[in-house]
Write the C-alpha coordinates for this entry.
Amino acid sequence: MNSFYRAPAVLLYCLCFSFSAVAQQPAPIEPAPGATHVPLTSSASPAGNDLLLDVVVTDKSGKPVAGLSQQDFTVLDNKQPTDILAFHAHKAADTPPGQVDASTEIIFILDEANAPYERATDAIQNLETYLKRNKGQLDHPVSVGILTDSGLQLQTQPTLDGNALAAAIAQQGQARRNIELGTVGGTFQRLQLSIDATRDLIAKEKSKPGRKMVIWISPGWPLINPRQILTGDQQQQVFNTAILLSTGARDARITFYSVDSLGAAGIGEHSTYYQNYTAGLTRPHDAAFGDLGLQVLVTQTGGRAIFGDDFIATSLQHCVDDLSAFYTLAIKPAPTDHPKQFHELSVKVAQPGFKVRTRSGYYAQP
Protein backbone atom coordinates (compact mmCIF):
# COMPACT_ATOMS: atom_id res chain seq x y z
CA MET A 1 0.00 0.00 0.00
CA ASN A 2 1.50 3.38 -0.97
CA SER A 3 1.86 6.33 1.41
CA PHE A 4 -1.21 8.15 0.06
CA TYR A 5 -3.48 5.32 1.18
CA ARG A 6 -1.65 4.68 4.45
CA ALA A 7 -1.97 8.29 5.58
CA PRO A 8 -5.79 8.28 6.00
CA ALA A 9 -5.65 5.21 8.26
CA VAL A 10 -3.01 6.74 10.54
CA LEU A 11 -4.80 10.08 10.61
CA LEU A 12 -8.21 8.66 11.44
CA TYR A 13 -6.82 6.39 14.14
CA CYS A 14 -5.33 9.45 15.80
CA LEU A 15 -8.59 11.37 15.47
CA CYS A 16 -10.72 8.65 17.07
CA PHE A 17 -8.29 7.97 19.89
CA SER A 18 -7.51 11.57 20.79
CA PHE A 19 -11.18 12.67 20.73
CA SER A 20 -12.39 9.98 23.11
CA ALA A 21 -9.48 10.53 25.49
CA VAL A 22 -9.99 14.28 25.84
CA ALA A 23 -13.79 14.13 25.90
CA GLN A 24 -13.67 12.07 29.11
CA GLN A 25 -12.02 14.98 30.96
CA PRO A 26 -13.65 18.24 29.83
CA ALA A 27 -12.02 21.50 30.87
CA PRO A 28 -14.74 23.76 32.33
CA ILE A 29 -15.08 27.46 31.50
CA GLU A 30 -16.77 29.76 33.95
CA PRO A 31 -19.89 31.64 32.76
CA ALA A 32 -19.77 35.36 32.11
CA PRO A 33 -19.81 37.45 35.32
CA GLY A 34 -23.21 38.83 36.19
CA ALA A 35 -25.00 36.93 33.45
CA THR A 36 -28.41 35.49 34.21
CA HIS A 37 -29.05 32.06 32.75
CA VAL A 38 -32.58 31.47 31.46
CA PRO A 39 -33.62 27.96 32.52
CA LEU A 40 -35.63 25.41 30.58
CA THR A 41 -39.15 25.62 32.00
CA SER A 42 -42.00 23.20 31.49
CA SER A 43 -44.67 21.28 33.27
CA ALA A 44 -42.31 18.32 32.89
CA SER A 45 -38.66 18.86 33.84
CA PRO A 46 -36.16 17.09 31.57
CA ALA A 47 -34.17 14.23 33.08
CA GLY A 48 -30.41 14.01 32.75
CA ASN A 49 -30.52 11.48 29.93
CA ASP A 50 -33.18 13.27 27.87
CA LEU A 51 -32.27 14.68 24.46
CA LEU A 52 -32.65 18.46 24.16
CA LEU A 53 -33.50 19.78 20.71
CA ASP A 54 -32.95 23.46 20.01
CA VAL A 55 -35.36 24.31 17.21
CA VAL A 56 -35.50 27.38 14.95
CA VAL A 57 -38.70 27.97 12.97
CA THR A 58 -38.54 30.50 10.13
CA ASP A 59 -41.16 32.08 7.90
CA LYS A 60 -40.99 32.48 4.12
CA SER A 61 -38.62 35.45 4.46
CA GLY A 62 -36.25 33.46 6.69
CA LYS A 63 -37.13 35.38 9.85
CA PRO A 64 -37.35 33.33 13.10
CA VAL A 65 -40.94 32.81 14.24
CA ALA A 66 -41.91 33.49 17.86
CA GLY A 67 -45.12 32.75 19.74
CA LEU A 68 -45.51 29.01 19.07
CA SER A 69 -46.60 26.62 21.82
CA GLN A 70 -45.79 23.01 22.57
CA GLN A 71 -48.98 21.92 20.86
CA ASP A 72 -47.69 23.34 17.56
CA PHE A 73 -44.81 20.85 17.43
CA THR A 74 -44.57 17.19 16.50
CA VAL A 75 -41.31 15.26 16.89
CA LEU A 76 -40.69 12.16 14.80
CA ASP A 77 -37.99 9.65 15.79
CA ASN A 78 -37.33 7.31 12.86
CA LYS A 79 -40.62 8.61 11.42
CA GLN A 80 -42.54 7.62 14.57
CA PRO A 81 -44.11 10.27 16.85
CA THR A 82 -42.44 10.64 20.23
CA ASP A 83 -43.56 12.54 23.34
CA ILE A 84 -42.30 16.04 24.06
CA LEU A 85 -41.33 15.84 27.72
CA ALA A 86 -40.38 19.49 28.23
CA PHE A 87 -40.75 22.69 26.24
CA HIS A 88 -39.47 26.24 26.45
CA ALA A 89 -39.92 29.16 24.06
CA HIS A 90 -36.94 31.54 23.93
CA LYS A 91 -37.53 35.10 22.78
CA ALA A 92 -34.89 37.82 23.04
CA ALA A 93 -37.53 40.49 23.63
CA ASP A 94 -38.60 38.70 26.83
CA THR A 95 -35.28 39.30 28.60
CA PRO A 96 -35.90 41.82 31.43
CA PRO A 97 -34.18 45.22 31.13
CA GLY A 98 -30.75 45.23 32.76
CA GLN A 99 -30.34 41.47 32.45
CA VAL A 100 -28.49 39.40 29.89
CA ASP A 101 -29.92 36.28 28.29
CA ALA A 102 -27.00 33.93 28.89
CA SER A 103 -29.01 30.85 27.98
CA THR A 104 -26.88 30.79 24.82
CA GLU A 105 -23.16 31.45 24.46
CA ILE A 106 -21.76 32.45 21.07
CA ILE A 107 -18.33 31.22 20.05
CA PHE A 108 -16.70 32.61 16.91
CA ILE A 109 -13.92 30.51 15.37
CA LEU A 110 -11.59 32.42 13.05
CA ASP A 111 -10.16 29.73 10.81
CA GLU A 112 -6.82 30.98 9.52
CA ALA A 113 -5.48 27.47 8.88
CA ASN A 114 -7.94 26.55 6.12
CA ALA A 115 -8.32 29.91 4.37
CA PRO A 116 -6.03 31.71 1.91
CA TYR A 117 -4.02 34.43 3.62
CA GLU A 118 -5.89 37.39 2.12
CA ARG A 119 -9.31 35.90 2.90
CA ALA A 120 -8.27 35.18 6.49
CA THR A 121 -7.20 38.82 6.81
CA ASP A 122 -10.59 39.98 5.53
CA ALA A 123 -12.37 37.63 7.96
CA ILE A 124 -10.43 39.08 10.89
CA GLN A 125 -11.39 42.63 9.93
CA ASN A 126 -15.05 41.68 9.45
CA LEU A 127 -15.24 39.96 12.84
CA GLU A 128 -13.70 43.02 14.51
CA THR A 129 -16.32 45.18 12.77
CA TYR A 130 -19.12 42.92 13.95
CA LEU A 131 -17.92 42.86 17.56
CA LYS A 132 -17.70 46.67 17.72
CA ARG A 133 -21.30 47.19 16.59
CA ASN A 134 -23.67 48.79 19.10
CA LYS A 135 -20.67 50.39 20.82
CA GLY A 136 -19.32 46.94 21.58
CA GLN A 137 -22.26 45.93 23.77
CA LEU A 138 -23.08 42.26 23.14
CA ASP A 139 -26.45 40.64 23.83
CA HIS A 140 -25.00 37.23 24.66
CA PRO A 141 -21.72 36.04 26.21
CA VAL A 142 -19.18 35.74 23.39
CA SER A 143 -15.76 34.15 23.12
CA VAL A 144 -13.44 33.95 20.15
CA GLY A 145 -11.18 31.11 19.08
CA ILE A 146 -8.47 31.42 16.45
CA LEU A 147 -7.42 28.30 14.56
CA THR A 148 -3.85 28.58 13.27
CA ASP A 149 -1.31 25.99 12.19
CA SER A 150 -0.39 25.70 15.88
CA GLY A 151 -3.91 24.74 16.95
CA LEU A 152 -6.96 26.42 18.48
CA GLN A 153 -6.47 29.30 20.87
CA LEU A 154 -9.72 29.89 22.74
CA GLN A 155 -10.56 32.51 25.36
CA THR A 156 -11.19 30.98 28.77
CA GLN A 157 -13.81 33.57 29.77
CA PRO A 158 -16.84 34.57 27.67
CA THR A 159 -17.54 38.30 27.79
CA LEU A 160 -20.16 40.87 26.87
CA ASP A 161 -17.51 43.42 25.86
CA GLY A 162 -17.20 43.33 22.09
CA ASN A 163 -14.61 46.12 22.05
CA ALA A 164 -12.30 44.11 24.29
CA LEU A 165 -12.66 41.07 22.04
CA ALA A 166 -11.95 43.12 18.91
CA ALA A 167 -8.89 44.67 20.53
CA ALA A 168 -7.57 41.26 21.55
CA ILE A 169 -7.97 39.97 17.97
CA ALA A 170 -6.22 43.03 16.53
CA GLN A 171 -3.36 42.74 19.00
CA GLN A 172 -2.71 39.10 18.19
CA GLY A 173 -2.55 39.70 14.45
CA GLN A 174 -2.29 36.92 11.89
CA ALA A 175 -0.10 33.92 12.60
CA ARG A 176 2.71 32.68 10.37
CA ARG A 177 1.79 29.65 8.28
CA ASN A 178 3.68 26.38 8.68
CA ILE A 179 1.30 24.09 6.76
CA GLU A 180 1.16 24.51 3.00
CA LEU A 181 -2.24 24.78 1.33
CA GLY A 182 -2.78 22.58 -1.72
CA THR A 183 -0.36 19.76 -0.81
CA VAL A 184 -1.38 16.20 0.10
CA GLY A 185 0.57 16.25 3.35
CA GLY A 186 -0.74 19.69 4.25
CA THR A 187 -4.30 18.59 3.55
CA PHE A 188 -4.04 15.72 6.03
CA GLN A 189 -2.45 17.99 8.62
CA ARG A 190 -5.20 20.58 8.27
CA LEU A 191 -7.96 17.98 8.65
CA GLN A 192 -6.25 16.63 11.77
CA LEU A 193 -5.93 20.18 13.08
CA SER A 194 -9.60 21.00 12.40
CA ILE A 195 -10.95 17.84 14.02
CA ASP A 196 -8.66 18.29 17.03
CA ALA A 197 -9.92 21.86 17.44
CA THR A 198 -13.55 20.72 17.33
CA ARG A 199 -12.81 17.89 19.75
CA ASP A 200 -11.16 20.24 22.25
CA LEU A 201 -13.95 22.80 21.96
CA ILE A 202 -16.64 20.19 22.58
CA ALA A 203 -14.75 18.89 25.61
CA LYS A 204 -14.53 22.39 27.12
CA GLU A 205 -18.18 23.24 26.47
CA LYS A 206 -19.67 19.94 27.61
CA SER A 207 -19.63 20.82 31.30
CA LYS A 208 -21.32 24.21 30.82
CA PRO A 209 -25.09 24.77 31.00
CA GLY A 210 -27.15 26.25 28.20
CA ARG A 211 -27.00 26.26 24.45
CA LYS A 212 -23.85 27.11 22.48
CA MET A 213 -23.80 28.63 19.00
CA VAL A 214 -20.40 27.93 17.43
CA ILE A 215 -19.84 29.96 14.25
CA TRP A 216 -16.86 28.90 12.11
CA ILE A 217 -15.61 31.62 9.78
CA SER A 218 -14.05 29.20 7.35
CA PRO A 219 -14.21 27.77 3.82
CA GLY A 220 -14.51 24.38 5.53
CA TRP A 221 -12.24 21.50 6.43
CA PRO A 222 -10.27 19.58 3.79
CA LEU A 223 -12.33 16.76 2.24
CA ILE A 224 -9.28 14.72 1.11
CA ASN A 225 -10.74 13.47 -2.16
CA PRO A 226 -14.24 12.50 -0.95
CA ARG A 227 -14.65 10.21 -3.97
CA GLN A 228 -11.72 8.05 -2.91
CA ILE A 229 -12.58 4.38 -2.26
CA LEU A 230 -11.64 3.50 1.34
CA THR A 231 -10.78 0.17 2.89
CA GLY A 232 -13.15 -1.38 5.41
CA ASP A 233 -10.94 -0.31 8.33
CA GLN A 234 -10.78 3.25 7.04
CA GLN A 235 -14.56 3.39 6.67
CA GLN A 236 -14.95 2.15 10.25
CA GLN A 237 -12.62 4.91 11.44
CA VAL A 238 -14.55 7.60 9.53
CA PHE A 239 -17.79 6.17 10.94
CA ASN A 240 -16.47 6.26 14.53
CA THR A 241 -15.11 9.79 14.17
CA ALA A 242 -18.38 11.12 12.72
CA ILE A 243 -20.33 9.54 15.60
CA LEU A 244 -17.97 11.00 18.21
CA LEU A 245 -18.34 14.51 16.78
CA SER A 246 -22.12 14.21 16.46
CA THR A 247 -22.62 12.75 19.94
CA GLY A 248 -20.17 15.20 21.49
CA ALA A 249 -22.02 18.17 19.98
CA ARG A 250 -25.32 16.72 21.21
CA ASP A 251 -24.06 16.24 24.77
CA ALA A 252 -22.49 19.71 24.84
CA ARG A 253 -25.66 21.20 23.31
CA ILE A 254 -23.74 22.83 20.48
CA THR A 255 -25.25 24.03 17.23
CA PHE A 256 -22.58 24.63 14.60
CA TYR A 257 -22.80 27.37 11.98
CA SER A 258 -20.38 28.27 9.19
CA VAL A 259 -19.73 31.43 7.19
CA ASP A 260 -17.53 30.86 4.16
CA SER A 261 -14.56 33.24 4.30
CA LEU A 262 -14.05 32.82 0.53
CA GLY A 263 -17.12 35.00 -0.09
CA ALA A 264 -18.37 35.14 -3.68
CA ALA A 265 -15.30 33.23 -4.85
CA GLY A 266 -16.59 30.14 -2.99
CA ILE A 267 -19.73 29.68 -5.08
CA GLY A 268 -19.70 26.44 -7.05
CA GLU A 269 -19.12 22.79 -6.18
CA HIS A 270 -17.35 23.92 -3.01
CA SER A 271 -20.65 25.30 -1.70
CA THR A 272 -22.88 22.35 -2.63
CA TYR A 273 -20.92 19.09 -2.60
CA TYR A 274 -21.20 18.64 1.19
CA GLN A 275 -24.97 18.16 0.79
CA ASN A 276 -24.29 14.60 -0.42
CA TYR A 277 -23.22 13.65 3.11
CA THR A 278 -25.73 15.32 5.44
CA ALA A 279 -28.16 12.41 5.86
CA GLY A 280 -26.24 10.72 8.67
CA LEU A 281 -24.37 7.42 8.66
CA THR A 282 -26.27 4.23 9.41
CA ARG A 283 -23.38 1.79 8.83
CA PRO A 284 -19.60 1.93 8.37
CA HIS A 285 -19.90 0.57 4.82
CA ASP A 286 -21.38 3.92 3.70
CA ALA A 287 -18.66 6.11 5.27
CA ALA A 288 -16.49 8.41 3.14
CA PHE A 289 -14.17 11.34 3.81
CA GLY A 290 -17.00 13.69 2.88
CA ASP A 291 -18.79 12.70 6.10
CA LEU A 292 -16.15 14.63 8.06
CA GLY A 293 -16.90 18.01 6.45
CA LEU A 294 -17.55 21.12 8.54
CA GLN A 295 -20.74 22.01 6.67
CA VAL A 296 -21.96 18.43 7.15
CA LEU A 297 -21.66 18.86 10.93
CA VAL A 298 -23.32 22.27 10.66
CA THR A 299 -26.35 20.85 8.86
CA GLN A 300 -26.66 17.82 11.12
CA THR A 301 -26.69 19.94 14.29
CA GLY A 302 -29.37 22.30 12.93
CA GLY A 303 -27.23 25.30 12.00
CA ARG A 304 -26.75 27.23 8.78
CA ALA A 305 -23.95 27.02 6.21
CA ILE A 306 -23.68 30.43 4.52
CA PHE A 307 -21.78 30.85 1.24
CA GLY A 308 -21.20 33.58 -1.32
CA ASP A 309 -21.34 36.72 0.83
CA ASP A 310 -18.29 39.00 0.76
CA PHE A 311 -19.75 40.94 3.71
CA ILE A 312 -18.86 38.45 6.41
CA ALA A 313 -20.06 40.70 9.23
CA THR A 314 -23.56 40.65 7.72
CA SER A 315 -23.51 36.86 7.47
CA LEU A 316 -22.48 36.61 11.13
CA GLN A 317 -25.53 38.66 12.07
CA HIS A 318 -27.75 36.35 10.03
CA CYS A 319 -26.49 33.47 12.19
CA VAL A 320 -26.99 35.33 15.47
CA ASP A 321 -30.52 36.32 14.40
CA ASP A 322 -31.52 32.71 15.07
CA LEU A 323 -31.31 33.54 18.78
CA SER A 324 -34.09 36.14 18.53
CA ALA A 325 -36.64 33.32 18.78
CA PHE A 326 -36.12 29.58 19.17
CA TYR A 327 -37.58 26.64 21.06
CA THR A 328 -36.10 23.92 23.23
CA LEU A 329 -37.84 20.53 23.27
CA ALA A 330 -36.88 17.55 25.40
CA ILE A 331 -37.51 13.99 24.23
CA LYS A 332 -36.53 10.56 25.47
CA PRO A 333 -33.94 8.78 23.28
CA ALA A 334 -35.31 5.52 21.92
CA PRO A 335 -34.06 2.31 23.57
CA THR A 336 -31.83 0.08 21.49
CA ASP A 337 -29.94 -3.19 21.80
CA HIS A 338 -27.33 -2.14 19.24
CA PRO A 339 -24.60 0.47 19.86
CA LYS A 340 -24.19 3.40 17.48
CA GLN A 341 -27.64 2.99 15.97
CA PHE A 342 -28.59 6.08 13.98
CA HIS A 343 -32.04 7.57 14.58
CA GLU A 344 -33.39 10.14 12.17
CA LEU A 345 -35.12 13.10 13.81
CA SER A 346 -37.71 15.38 12.26
CA VAL A 347 -39.64 18.23 13.86
CA LYS A 348 -42.85 19.46 12.27
CA VAL A 349 -45.01 22.50 12.99
CA ALA A 350 -48.71 22.74 12.33
CA GLN A 351 -48.61 26.05 10.45
CA PRO A 352 -48.01 25.80 6.68
CA GLY A 353 -45.13 27.64 5.03
CA PHE A 354 -42.75 27.48 7.99
CA LYS A 355 -39.32 25.85 7.85
CA VAL A 356 -37.79 24.03 10.81
CA ARG A 357 -34.11 23.56 11.58
CA THR A 358 -32.86 21.33 14.37
CA ARG A 359 -30.62 18.33 14.93
CA SER A 360 -31.29 15.82 12.15
CA GLY A 361 -30.52 12.69 14.16
CA TYR A 362 -28.65 11.00 16.96
CA TYR A 363 -26.82 7.77 17.66
CA ALA A 364 -28.59 5.64 20.25
CA GLN A 365 -26.70 3.48 22.73
CA PRO A 366 -27.92 0.47 24.76
